[in-house]
Specification:
Keywords: DNA-binding, Phosphoprotein, Transcription, Transcription regulation. This protein is α/β, with parallel strands linked by helices. It contains 10 helices and 6 strands; from the N terminus they run E-H-E-H-E-H-E-H-E-H-E-H-H-H-H-H. It folds into 2 domains: 137 residues, Response regulator (Rossmann fold); 73 residues, Arc Repressor Mutant, subunit A (Orthogonal Bundle), CATH 1.10.10.
Length: 219
């Protein structure tokens, strides 16, 4: 897996590079500015980019805009965004977009190496990795979603595996069932959670978010 890191803090940038290289991952470039990051993406065509939300010159949303531009230039590029704290405006936009191969983690997760690497792998494999604290804040003022109670035990099991970032084939292998059975369960999950196919959102991401929120509430 070829990785580009965009982070304006030199210590964190080089620390991330050392950590990933120690894990046998190929960090092909690091960048401290959005322009340098985009140039690295154009040159190296990485599989995944790790991008800080706040970058020069204004340290507001330059990192996010650079990540969006990078995915425009290289469709399918996996992006894991790092932020010092929950930026609800960006988090909401990210989840509303519903694109796969996206993650949003607080920087404190980097110190929890196993969690960080798991999130990295999930995003690279086509899944979505959203920090539990982000989910908690997005749903902080909402009532518990009782629609989850409609799910059967097997459907809850499928949804939990979806939240781990597994695709249909991987879920089928884990549960020792056919791909068709998994597809049927997922259709039922969407129906029971009132996730219509034409409402402009990614139903898989929306279902996973509800599962994560429920798990956080019960913890």
């Amino acid at each position: 897996m070829r990785i580009v890191i965009a982070e304006d803090d030199p210590l964190l940038r080089e620390g991330l590079a050392l950590l990933l290289r120690a894990e046998g991952l190929d960090v092909v470039a690091t960048a401290g500015t959005p322009d340098a990051f985009l140039a690295a993406v154009d040159e190296h065509r990485p599989d995944l980019a790790i991008v800080d939300v706040r970058m020069p010159p204004t340290h507001t949303d330059e990192g996010i805009r650079a990540a969006v531009e990078a995915r425009r230039r290289q469709p399918g590029l996996a992006v894991l965004v790092l932020s010092a704290y929950v930026e609800q405006a960006f988090a909401t936009d990210l989840l509303a977009d519903g694109s796969a191969r996206l993650g949003y983690l607080l920087k404190e997760r980097v110190g929890r190496v196993e969690e960080f690497l798991t999130a990295l792998e999930r995003v690279a494999d086509g899944g979505t990795a959203i920090d539990p604290e982000v989910v908690a804040q997005l749903f902080a003022r909402t009532r518990p979603d009782t629609r989850l109670d409609r799910l059967s035990p097997r459907e809850r099991e499928v949804l939990a595996l979806m939240a781990e970032g597994l695709g249909n084939a991987a879920i089928a292998e884990r549960l020792v069932v056919t791909d068709g059975a998994v597809h049927k369960h997922i259709r039922s999950i969407f129906a029971k959670l009132d996730l219509a196919p034409a409402d402009g959102t990614d139903r898989r991401v929306a279902a996973v978010l509800r599962h994560l929120n429920d798990a956080h509430r019960r913890a």
